[in-house]
C-alpha cells in the first residue's frame, strides 16, 4: 500500500509544470518572437544577396569571357 501513494506524487509534478508554463503565455511568446525575426532577417538577407550578386556577377562574367575565348 505505501507504493500507491509513492506513485501519485510523480504524477502531480507534471500537472503542476503544465500549470506553471501556462499555455496562454507560452503561445503568446513564440508568436512575438517569430514575428520579429522574419522582419529582421528579410532586410539582412536582401542586403547580403545584393552584395553577393554584385561581386559574383562581375567575377562570373569575367570567367565566362575567358571560357569563351579559350573555346574559340
Please outline the helices and strands:
Layout (H helix, E strand, L loop, with lengths): L2 H19 L1 H49 L1
What does this structure look like?
With 72 residues, the protein is an all-alpha fold. The chain has a domain at 37-72. Helices cover 94% and strands 0% of the residues. The chain contains two helices and no strands. The protein has helices at residues 3-21, 23-71. The longest helix has 49 residues, at 23-71. The chain is elongated, with a radius of gyration of 29 Å.
Features:
mainly alpha; 94% helix; 72 residues; 2 helices
Structural classification: mainly alpha
State mean pLDDT (0 to 100 scale): 56
Major β-sheet, in short?
Answer: none
Q: First CA to last CA: what distance?
A: 93 Å
Shape: elongated
SSE order in H/E notation?
Answer: HH
Please, how many helices? 2
Range of helix content = over 70%
* DSSP E strands, number: 0
- Proportion of strand residues: under 5%
Give a quick summary of the entry.
This protein is an all-alpha fold and 72 residues long. It has helices at 3-21, 23-71.
